[in-house]
Design goal:
16-stranded mixed beta sheet, single chain, two-stranded antiparallel ribbon, 20% strand, 41% helix, 18 helices, 536 residues, alpha+beta
Length: 536
């Protein structure tokens, strides 16, 4: 028999175990407008977040949204949890807007929500909206950093003036200095030499480095490429590596200055982090490759890359948020995602099977203000694979083309540095996937029957024009509709499922005009109904 826990321990533990359940029970028993209950629930969620129980906190906060009408803390905590769990930034902003609109705070403040909202807007490149939000925020180091991040790509001239003011206002803060080095790196990548104002700011920052480095040791390798004294730059990078675990982004600076050799650089580049995950930036790979001088080192680089397991990201605009993310296992493609507006909801996500594209989720261009995701399956029979489409599912409807007649190829593939590793890139010449393209490219669409429970309807198309529609319950055909010039004329039905289509419906002559992509979704305006004995 297992020993029982002491009674005092069991009594003490019970409230901790029951607290989430009690909170959720109260949520379902009419206490949603209770400010005191909302405050207790917010405190529970904050404790869960502080203890790292993010998944539990998110689940509870999603259920507690009705409390948001009396507590801004609930919405703010929901935004924090959604952000931590990598939910869409649109959903994060939705929670923050609600928190700011209610404006009833206890644990946090409107300033916290405003700054978090501005940060997400900057990440989504909505720089004008972010600056408008920040204009109402109190002056602080975080407000200054976010303003600089927004101004850098949006208003470069104003960025320089604001950077000067910020360095004067917050001389011991490291955040603005990080932004300044990122700005210099972007200018260098674009082939621009620093101007007079930039050089004056750089001289000021370098003078302050001894004071700033204890707070942010990574400034050592960030500053190194822009220091005139290479010996001092080498000393700073060496000291950084001697005391701290170097981040992968620091490798090019260390290799360029001779702090490490090529073998060490390659080993550290491809060694997974302590967490076991490995994420590499494509620019980092390119910079490291360009610094390798021996063919032996390049061969080792290629060999490591050919068997790479991890993620390669690409940040095309160098704003710190990658648009492209590609996952590999043993050198084979596993998943690719492209997020153009950086809202956390990719416009294109592709899953691979043995390195071959198998399935994609594609964000369809907006129609009537709404954006829908289509699930696309490619053919998987050997020799009949990407880019031949097997089926597309959109908003509960399946679009089915004839074999090898509809092709969709959103990706092109590059081999990285002769390693054999294929890197996908979104093909800008591939036309967008729209409902009109789908309807024009398939020979039938399938959807749940609108009349027969558990049934399906199959609408046959010719160049997007419906010619016949049939409905099935299991293997039994229970309805057949005939069309003329894309308009429904007559429908025969088996309403009692006895195998005999003994009911006839005639459609009205008048017909609402429709776009090509909507013709298959025909109006069911019945003019007359009659019995049919199978003969005319």
């Amino acid at each position: 028999m297992k020993p029982r826990a002491p009674a005092c321990f069991r009594v003490w533990l019970l409230p901790l175990v029951l607290l989430p359940a009690v909170a959720l029970y109260s949520l379902d028993t009419g206490a949603r407008g209770d400010s005191a209950m909302a405050a207790r629930y917010a405190q529970w969620a904050k404790d869960a977040v502080d203890q790292g129980r993010w998944t539990e906190a998110l689940a509870g906060l999603e259920r507690a949204q009705d409390f948001a009408d009396v507590s801004s803390d609930i919405s703010y905590l929901l935004a924090l949890a959604r952000s931590h769990e990598n939910k869409s930034r649109t959903l994060v902003l939705e929670a923050l807007d609600r928190a700011l609109a209610v404006n009833r705070w206890n644990l946090y403040s409107g300033e916290d929500a405003r700054l978090m909202k501005a940060e997400n807007l900057v990440d989504m490149r909505a720089y004008g909206k972010a600056l408008a939000e920040l204009s109402g925020a109190a002056k602080s180091p975080k407000q200054a950093v976010l303003t600089l991040r927004a101004l850098m790509p949006y208003r470069p001239e104003e960025f320089r003036r604001y950077m000067t003011d910020t360095l004067d206002r917050y001389p011991r803060e490291t955040g603005p200095v990080r932004v300044f080095f990122a700005y210099l790196g972007n200018e260098n990548a674009a082939g621009h030499n620093p101007g007079k104002d930039d050089l004056e700011l750089l001289e000021l920052v370098n003078r302050r480095l001894p004071v700033l480095l204890p707070k942010d040791p990574e400034l050592a390798w960030m500053a190194a490429p822009f220091m005139r004294d290479s010996a001092e730059a080498k000393r700073l990078v060496s000291a950084y590596r001697a005391i701290h675990t170097p981040v992968p982004a620091s490798l090019p600076a260390a290799l360029r200055l001779g702090v490490i050799d090529e073998e060490t650089a390659i080993e550290e580049l491809f060694t997974p982090a302590d967490s076991g995950a490995n994420t590499l930036d494509l620019t980092l790979l390119s910079d490291t490759w360009d610094l390798l001088r021996t063919e032996e080192s390049r061969a080792v680089f290629r060999r490591n890359l050919s068997a790479y397991t991890g993620v390669i990201i690409e940040d095309g605009d160098r704003d710190g948020i990658p648009e492209n993310s590609t996952e590999y296992s043993g050198g084979q493609l596993v998943r690719y995602a492209y997020d153009a507006d950086q809202d956390g909801n990719p416009e294109l996500a592709v899953d691979f099977d043995a390195g071959v594209p198998e399935r994609a989720v594609v964000l369809i261009p907006p129609e009537a203000g709404a954006r829908l995701s289509a699930e696309l399956l490619w053919e998987q029979t050997p020799g009949r694979q990407y880019p031949a489409v097997l089926e597309v599912k959109l908003d509960g409807v399946s679009y089915i083309p004839r074999p090898m007649e509809f092709y969709y190829s959103p990706l092109a593939f590059d081999e990285l540095w002769g390693s054999g590793l294929l890197y996908p890139r979104r093909d800008p010449l591939c036309p967008p996937l729209t409902r009109r393209v789908l309807v024009s490219s398939v020979y039938k669409v399938e959807r749940p029957s609108l009349e027969f429970k558990g049934g399906i309807e199959v609408v046959e198309l010719n160049n997007g024009i419906p010619v016949r529609a049939r409905e099935y319950v299991g293997d039994l055909m229970v309805s057949e509709t005939e069309f003329l010039r894309g308009r429904p004329q007559l429908q025969r039905l088996d309403l009692n499922l006895d195998g005999r289509m003994d009911t006839v419906r005639h459609f009205r002559r008048s017909y609402r005009p429709k776009e090509l992509e909507d013709l298959w979704n025909y109006d069911r305006d019945i003019d007359a109904v009659s019995d049919w004995d199978g003969e005319y």
